[in-house]
Amino acid sequence: ANDLYDFRKGADAPGRIGPARVLPEGWLGTSEVRTGMIVSFAIATVAGLYLWSVAGWPVVAIGAASILAGIGYTAGPFALAYIGLGDLFVLLFFGFVAVLGTYYVQAGGLHPEAVLAAIPVGALATAILVVNNVRDLDRDRAAGKRTLAVMLGRRGSRAEFLALLIAAYAVPLGLWAQGFRTAWILLPFATGSLAVRALHAVRVREDGPALNQALLDTAGLHALFGLLFAAGIALG
Known about the structure:
Elements: H1 2-9, H2 22-25, H3 30-55, H4 57-72, H5 86-107, H6 112-135, H7 137-143, H8 148-177, H9 192-204, H10 208-235
Helix pairs in contact: 3-4, 4-5, 5-6, 6-8, 6-10, 7-8, 8-9, 9-10
């Protein structure tokens, strides 16, 4: 959906400095990408039918809202990514909706610790978007795509990236300091060097290749942090 509507609006065009996308490169046509989008949402809906049978109507609400957000992120005259709301909705859906929805389906309710656990997951997912938008800032501005990075500028976006990293690492530290979890919960701090490397690139570099590497580093950080955070919770 993102590829399709960004391409239609001119935000993705040949010569983009980010990783290659199928439409600007001419590898697929818009009808093929649209079909892929519909099939992907259909598969998700089929999976959701089972989860609905297990956990009831909240799953329907989550699924419907997620599909609408997935399309509305870049589609329509008030696309979320084009009015500076992309970061907020990534934090909401990739963090709180994903983690709390998963917890609810398995536990049949919610728990305050699940809310806290959603913060680093959402924060680091949003950090990936920040790197992407800092890299594309000039092209997005020219295309009329008013991402939060366009609104804040590079300095403000770099501050946002740092704040997201701080929020992610503050959660396991807080859980340990308050005695809710043992020292195993500090396992995510093993990812510190990866976070520092990504932060350094975002703070000092503006060229596409360096920020593409920072994008990969931040995605890797999100995955590794999540695995270690889950392990820390499981171990106590």
